[in-house]
Amino acid sequence: MSPASGLRAVGRPALATLAAIGRVALFAVATLGHMLRPPFYWREFATQVMQIGWFSLPVVGLTALFTGGALALQIYSGGARFNAEAVVPSIVAIGMVRELGPVLGGLMVAARVASSIAAELGTMKVTEQIDALTTLSTNPMKYLVVPRVLAATLAVPVLVGVGDAIGIMGGWLVGVTRLDFNSVTYLKNTVDFLEIWDIGSGLVKGAVFGFLVALLGCYHGMNSGRGAQGVGRATKSAVVGASVLILAANYMLTEVFFTS
Asked: By the number of CB atoms within 10 A of the CB, which of 69, 110, 155, 160 ranks highest?
């Protein structure tokens, strides 16, 4: 392979990736712009709050419950090597509200919501329903994208907060029933070591993750290819893209929030 061919092999995917990032960024700017201008479709927004928030609660709650319990077991096992078993309540609480609650909640919502939005909008595009909205003088961005993005941005922090509480409860259940912790002492240590910003930072992460999940779902759905294969690729790309962006955004937000 000649040097020029090697450069082309590397440069072509890199340029395609940068172009895709640019298209998503422009889509995000357009979405934010439409959020600030009427009309607003409040009924569609309320429907999406139920779809994204309420119906995602079971999977987020179960994920948080088992994660909190497993985290308590792991911390107790590791702390026993240094006679530091007493740190289990505080580390479970901090780990859940700062990192595991927002990240796992965001990933579960991405798996459920980003795929659903991309498939729904992709199918609407394939069946020309989006073109019909334009014909009826209804802006598809305002009617389809803005309610979903706004609903996810507001609903996911609530899911994260509920998931944090359930995860801490899971750690408490394991600590009391399996690790012989005193219930009152466990809960007191949890409350004493948690700070307001620990909880607030997780909720901010949840809002950012919700925005990314809905944005990627809407972007890939609105730009879906034709036919069943196009909708399938859009769904897959939405979930993968949202998951990767959640992990990247989590690192950047953690760097901003907790690095002095």
From this structure: 160
